[in-house]
Design a protein that fits this description.
By secondary structure, the protein is an alpha/beta fold. It is 43% helix and 20% strand. The chain starts with a helix and ends with a helix.
Length: 265
């Protein structure tokens, strides 16, 4: 009888151990599943708040701008969550690639070169490069940049890439700054002869800081570029979510309302 009882108890104990192990595995999977669920995931969005009117900070320090409002509206329409993270421009793409960010929303121009290392959403804004010069200076064509001693750009931005194609990537004539405002301030102080950047950003700065100081030169040779939101290379799930949400706010008229807020004359 004692042997039978011992065998029964051992069998029951083994069953309990197996059940407990099985239960532990199931609990672990169910606990980790919500973290992977798109419904519960919060997408970390990297931006550089020195690119008004697309992203900047208000007097009280909160983020504002076309990109901020647009992506906020898209998250609402697409039923997903976002959290913005303001950081320097030159670290945005590295942070995206190492997983610290899920999306970059910072006035990023879609280029063939960038497509090799990142995936873009559908275009959400059309943009053209412009050349900013002092008020008294005349400017007619991009060829004139070759005759200048210093041309200011924001480092790594599209204006920088555009000027490199004209003057050469290693040209000592290219004066690089951490942001568009710093580059324009150098122009205002006479340290450079021209500054090249996205037209909407230049126009916004000049409008807010004195149109009597500068001349905005539209240059047809630059053509039209497009901004897109950026995700890691091959992240089709996130980019499809962004594209779907963008279509929804275009169809609802919300896109036009946000556009008018920042770009109405």
């Amino acid at each position: 009888m004692k042997i039978k009882h011992w065998l029964a108890a051992a069998t029951m104990c083994s069953a309990l151990v197996l059940t407990a192990c099985g239960g532990s595995k199931n609990n672990s999977e169910s606990a980790s599943a919500p973290a992977q669920s798109s419904a519960d995931k919060t997408y970390i969005v990297g931006t550089n708040a020195e690119f008004a009117p697309f992203e900047s900070r208000t007097a009280n320090g909160s983020l504002t701008g076309f990109d901020i409002d647009l992506l906020t509206a898209m998250a609402k329409a697409g039923n997903f969550k976002i959290q913005f993270k303001d950081q320097p421009w030159d670290g945005l793409f590295a942070s995206l690639n190492n997983g610290d960010l899920d999306i970059v929303a910072s006035g990023v121009t879609i280029t063939d070169e960038r497509k090799q290392s990142m995936t873009f959403s559908d275009p959400y804004f059309d943009i053209s490069m412009m050349v900013l010069t002092p008020k008294a200076k005349t400017f007619h064509s991009l060829a004139e940049l070759n005759n200048m001693q210093r041309v200011a750009v924001a480092s790594g931005q599209t204006g920088d890439l555009a000027v490199q194609k004209i003057l050469g990537a290693q040209s000592t004539k290219i004066a690089r700054f951490d942001s568009v405002p710093l580059a324009i301030k150098e122009l205002e102080n006479g340290g450079v002869e021209a500054m090249v950047s996205d037209g909407a950003v230049i126009s916004n700065y000049v409008k807010a800081n004195g149109a009597d100081k500068f001349t905005i030169n539209k240059v047809p040779e630059f053509g039209v570029d497009h901004y897109g939101f950026v995700v890691r290379k091959g992240d089709t799930a996130t980019v499809e979510k962004l594209n779907d949400a963008l279509k929804k706010i275009r169809a609802s008229g919300e896109y036009d309302k946000i556009y008018a807020k920042y770009f109405s004359n």
